[in-house]
Amino acid sequence: MLKKQPFPDSATGASGLDSVLFREGMSHVAAAVHVVTTDGPAGRAGFTATAVTPVTDSPASLLVCVNTEGRSGQSLLANGVFCVNTLGAADREVADIFAGRADLHGQDRFSRGRWETLATGAPALGTSLVSFDCRLSEARIVATHHVIIGEIVAIRIGETQPALVYQNRLYHEL
Predict the structure, then answer these.
(1) What is the pLDDT of residues 10-38, one digit of tens each?
(2) Residue 142 located in a structural domain
(3) How far apart are CA 10 and CA 33, in angstroms?
C-alpha cells in the first residue's frame, strides 16, 4: 500500500492555485506514455509526453502539450508534422531516453528503437502500440506550454502488448 504524502488538501499562492500542489495532484492521475517525434527542415526531434488526448474523430485529430522552452517542441512547430507513438511496457527505455533521463541527446536518441516513417516523414516507433501521424493544424501558447492540435493523416496499429502508463512519478505496466 502506498503511503499518502503530507500535502494539504488545498493551497493557493499569490497568483491562484499552488503549482506544486497541482503537479502533485496530477501525479496521481494515470496516463499513457507517448513519444512525440518530428522531422523536416528544422531537424529530427522528439520528447516523452503524457499530455496527449483525442480532439475529434472527424477530422481525426489529437492535442499535444509541450513546454515552450524545449527544442523538440520548437522543431515540431517549425516542421509542421509530428507522430504520436503510444508506448508499450517494453519501450520503457525509449520513454526514458526521450524524457532526457539518459545520456543520449538530439539525433542520438533515435539510435534506440526501430524507427520507420508513415505519410508525413515524422519518425514512427515500430514497436509502439499505435502511431498517429499528424500534420499541424493549430498551435497556441497557454502559459508555459504550446497546445498543439494535429490532424491525423495516417495510423499504424502495432502488436497487442501491455501498455506503459505513468502514475505517482513511476512507470507501470498495464
Answers:
(1) 444 445 678 899 889 988 888 999 999 99
(2) no
(3) 28
